[in-house]
Every structure is written in C-alpha cells, then in structure tokens.
Amino acid sequence: MSHSGAQKGSSLILVLMVASAAIGGTLQYGYNLAIMNAPTIFIQTFINETFLERWDIQLEDYQVTLVWTIIVSIFSLGGFAGALIAGPMTIRFGRKKCLLLNNIFLMSGSLLALTSRAAKSFEMIIISRVLVGINAGISMNVQPMYFGESAPKHLRGAISLSSAVFTAFGVVLGQVVGLREILGSEPCWQYLLASNAIPGVIQLLTLPWFPESPRYLLIDRGDKEACINALRRLRGCEVLGSELDEILQEQAETKGMRPSRPWELFTDRSVRWQLISVMIISSAMQLCGNDSIYFYASYVFKEAGIADNKIQYVTIGTGTCEFTACIMCNLLIERKGRRFMLMGGFILMTVWAVVFTIALSFEHYISWMPYLSMACIFTYILSFGMGPAGVTGVLPTEIFNQTARPAAYMIAGSMMWLNLFIIGMIFPFLVSELSEYCFVPFGAVCMLSALFVGLFLPETKGKSLSVITSEFHKLNFKGQDKKCPSQTQAQYQLGEVCLSTAL
User: Fold this and answer.
1) Which positions ≥6 away from 130 have C-beta within 8 Å?
2) Residue 391 is part of which domain span?
3) Does residue 231 lie within any of the structural domains?
4) Are residues 204 and 301 in the same domain?
5) Buried b vs exposed e over 5-35: b needs ≥16 C-beta within 10 Å?
6) Is the separation of the CB atoms in 18 and 144 below 8 Å?
7) What are φ and ψ of residue 458, in 5° steps?
8) Is residue 482 part of a domain?
9) Which regions span the lipid bilayer (predicted)?
10) Of 136, 223, 429, 495, which has the highest C-beta tally within 10 A?
11) Is the Cα torsion angle 168, 173, 174, 175 positive or negative in sign?
C-alpha cells in the first residue's frame, strides 16, 4: 500500500470511528443542555396544571421556578453518577462496548420523556433527565479516553478535541430542533425531550463495526494480536514498530498492577499535581458559567434587554459560536499547544466578563448597550470554545498512565458534574439577585484559572507520556534530591519508576 493510500485509509477509518462514537456520545451532552431552553414555559405550565389537577394547588411563581430548576439541574446529578460508574465500566467492558451499553440509559430516559405528558407526570421528566444525565456522564469520560488511546501521537490532541466539537454541534442541533417551527412548540415538547434517542440509534448501528482501543486490548486484556489488528485498521497501513513498542513498554511497566481506584490517587504523591490540575480545570470549566448560559439562555438574554420573540433565534448564535470556536481550536491545538489555548481562553473570558458587566450597568442609559451585552455573551462563549471546552477533556489522557486513567477521568468528571449542578441550581437566582453584576463571579473564576494554568501546568503537546511524567515529577517531588530517570533512558510512561526512585 502506498504512503498516500495509507494516509487515506487512516483518515477514513479514524474519522468514521470518531463520528460514530461522538454522535451517540458527547453530542448527547450538548444536545441535552440545549433542548431544555425552548420548552421552559410549556413544561412550567404542565407542572402547574399537574399540581392543580392532583392536589388542587395553585403554585406560586417561585415554586414553579424551583421545580423547573430541579428538572434542569438533576441532569447534572445524573452526569455525576455516570462519571462515577464510567471508570469501572471501561475496565470491565472496554471503551467501545461501554459506549454501546451506555445507550440503555439513553433509551430508557427517552421513553419516559415521551410518555410523561400522557401519564400527566412531571416526575417522569425528572427521572428521564437523571437517566439521560447518566448517559452523558459516561460518554463524557469514556469517549475522550477511547479517542486518546486510539489516535496516533501527532494527532492525539486534535482527535481527542473532536469530543468538544461534537458537544458544540449537539448544542447547535438542540437549539435548532428546539425552534418553535420544529419541536419547540406547545404540542411537541415531549417529542423534543425524547428526540435524543435518534443519535443513540445511529451509534448502535455503526459503532460495532469499529475496533476497540488498541491500548486497552494490549495493556488491559493482554491481547497483542487484537491490538495489532486494531492499530492496522485505524492507521490504514502496517503498524509502526515504534508505536507498538511504546504500548508494549507501558504494558511492561504496569504488568501485575490493577487499575487505580479514585481514592488511591489522592494518596499517591507521584500524581499529586496531575490530579490537582485536572480537578481545578474540570471545575473551572463549569464554574465559569458558560454551560449554564445554555440552560438559562432566556434568563440571560432577557437580562441583556433582548426582546422575547427574538430570544430563540439569538440563542442559536451561542451554540454556533462555540461550535465554530471548537473547530478553530481543533485546527490550532497541535500548533499552539494545550497550555496556550487554555490560558488564552480563560484570559479572554475574564475580559469579556468585565465588558459584559459594564454593558449591563449602562444598558438603561445608552440605547446600543443591549447589543454590546449580546456581543459579550457570544465572545465569552467563543473564548470558552477556543480553549477550556476542548482541552479539558484531553488532559487526563495525556498526563495519567493506563492504570490511573479511568480513575482520573472519574475524579475529573465528578468535579465537572458537581459544579455544573451547583451552578445550574444557583444561576437563575444569581442573575436575579446580582442583576448587572451576575458575571463578576464567573470572571473571577476565569482569572484565577488562567493564573493556575500559567504557573503550574506543563505543556503536553507532542510529548511522550514519560516526558510529561518527568515534568510533573519536578512539581510532585519539589525540593527532593532524587530525580526521575532521564528522558533518554525513559522512552515511555515510567510513573512507577519515578515513584520508586523518589522514595
């Protein structure tokens, strides 16, 4: 096979595998964030009517808002549960099979949402959101792991970042499907909530045709032949000896070791700063308030002075911004690096949060200020998409070895979902209480995150796992005389060797 033919084969199989995994994976996260904005009024009316019919109680506005906030935010608690079970599932079933089994939660949730209106039960919507959240929580952890372990080193960042591209595409798709002219109308809201089953069906039909993660097959299962076959299919050519040697070396270093449990990482000094980094950056991804804009776009744009009948169309622009930014980040990440994209994204978000606050403060005095407010929301989301949205999911794959990676994703995912739940619960009250200063806390989070990345996070672009481990070793064992083996001696991830020499 010629070199160009090999490249085409590699591109085709890899691209199709990425599309199949992501369309029923991280696309679901973005889609389920976005579809809850359009039917807000209709579901609130449904909640009120249900209480009136069952118990002859007319709910106050704040009570309806509270029930609605629970429906929206319970998705995050489902995601938290999904993040916790994702690690054990990937170890037991593998990356690909885990994504396929994950559709059980999705289909169950879709069925409950579809029948909730006929059953006159808003509780079924709550349970549906929990199940769909579990699905999203699992896919947000497993999919970047699957991609990172399947991609060649020079494409690792770009392939892993495609998870964020599909998340943003899911947001846009959810916003379009949620238009009043499609499924966002009063008679159709239950079909809108159940429409997330369609991407799941597409994944179930396509993903079985693609190979399992080569690293999982060799390191976890010890099946060298299956690993070589998977690499051959994904690369479209004969397997490079150097790539196979790297996986074999990692297998040798982790031989006899069981996968780490999450609580064990907290007591392992050799991964201390890796763990601190993913926890802070995963938390900042939600505490910056970006994803809450999708939950409560109507609240935000109303506060910015946008007319009610224009809000649904303006909202589509938010998703389009992040989608465009994620594609740009995908193109730039292997050139500029992870650290540059993360820090740049957070710095820009800090700037736009300040400008947005100023614009909201003067919107009653200057006629064009609402338009500046709207522009600030778009640029805030654009900056988020350029860095934190994509790079956050890549980091655990690059800075943890095979035995620690599932546990690291569980911790990172747990932090992300817990913080999304907290922000989702307080966001509407934050907007109403702080009014024009509602983005000040988010700006502070972005500024502190940029400082942390600039001071403590090493660059991982194009580096082998051993080099990354060596750089973190300097932080983990700062002030100690004993050093990690030199990079010329350690060609692979030697976290355990570093630990033994340091001790």
Assistant:
1) 74, 75, 77, 78, 81, 109
2) 260-474
3) no
4) no
5) eeeebbeebbeebbbbbbbbbbbbbbbbbbb
6) no
7) -70, 155
8) no
9) 12-31, 66-87, 125-146, 158-177, 189-210, 311-333, 340-362, 368-395, 407-431, 437-457
10) 136
11) positive
- 293 and 442 fall within a common domain: yes
Short-list 173, 182, 167, CA closest to 39: 182
Q: Based on the domain organization, do 169 and 58 belong to the same domain?
A: yes
Q: Which contiguous run of DSSP H or E holds residue 340?
A: helix 338-361
Contact criterion met (CB below 8 Å) for 387 and 329: yes
427-434: list long-range contacts, CB under 8 Å, 24+ apart: 427/289, 427/292, 427/295, 427/296, 427/299, 428/65, 428/69, 428/296, 428/299, 431/296, 431/299, 431/300, 431/303, 432/299
289 and 180 within one domain: no
- Whether the CB-CB separation of 227 and 137 falls below 8 Å is answered with no
- For residues 364 and 359, what is the distance between their CA atoms, to the nearest angstrom? 10
- The token duo for 455 is 């001071």
In a domain, 253, yes or no: no
State the total domains in the chain. Answer: 2
* Cβ–Cβ under 8 Å, residues 195 and 204: no
**Alpha helix segments (H runs only) across 56-94:** 61-93
- Whether residues 201 and 273 share a domain: the answer is no
CB of 139 closer than 8 Å to CB of 25: yes
CA 461 to chain centre: 20
Q: How many Å apart are CA 241 and CA 243, to the nearest integer?
A: 6
pLDDT value at position 8?
Answer: 44
Q: How far apart are CA 206 and CA 208, in angstroms?
A: 6
Question: What's the chain's length in residues?
Answer: 503
Of the three residues 149, 176, 210, the one that is the final residue of a domain is 210
Query: Token digits for 266?
Result: 């907290």
Q: 195 and 306: one domain?
A: no
CB atoms within 10 A of CB 474: 13
Q: Is residue 354 located within the same domain as residue 444?
A: yes
pLDDT score recorded for residue 316:
85
Residue 441: name the closest of 454, 427, 452, 453 by CA. Answer: 427
Q: Are residues 34 and 178 in the same domain?
A: yes
